[in-house]
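Tip: read the tokens left to right.
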């Protein structure tokens, strides 16, 4: 029995034990293959196909009221607005740090000594 046949049997509503009993005899698989198609056509459509090894469905949570939904939405929007403000501050600070400031003139030891001895002439001021 190939995988496609097993899938068709599962979709038709056969249980694991029924499929295993059909697979036990090769002739039974061949004769039941025709009846699978008939069963698929005659099988009532169900909203959920049977699933092997699954647990019962979890109970649904009660629906939230519009006030709770609105409060949750406001909280999310406020959180996003706070994160956006932090990001904006970070980008602005990074831009300030990386902005081009006028370079400070490089002073040599002679320039520093000259400014100590005669502070007005080294700066060019009187």
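Filled-in amino acids:
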């Amino acid at each position: 029995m190939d995988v496609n046949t097993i899938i068709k049997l599962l979709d038709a509503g056969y249980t694991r034990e029924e499929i295993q009993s059909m697979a036990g005899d090769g002739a039974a698989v061949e004769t039941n293959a025709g009846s699978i198609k008939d069963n698929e056509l005659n099988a009532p459509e169900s909203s959920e196909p049977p699933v092997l090894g699954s647990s019962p469905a979890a109970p649904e949570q009660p629906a939230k009221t519009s006030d709770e939904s609105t409060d949750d939405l406001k909280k999310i929007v406020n959180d996003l607005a706070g994160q956006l403000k932090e990001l904006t501050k970070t980008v602005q600070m990074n831009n300030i740090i990386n902005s081009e400031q006028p370079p400070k003139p490089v002073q040599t030891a002679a320039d520093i000594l000259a400014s100590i001895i005669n502070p007005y002439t080294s700066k060019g001021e009187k």
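The first helix runs from residue 3 to 12. The two ends are 105 Å apart (CA to CA).
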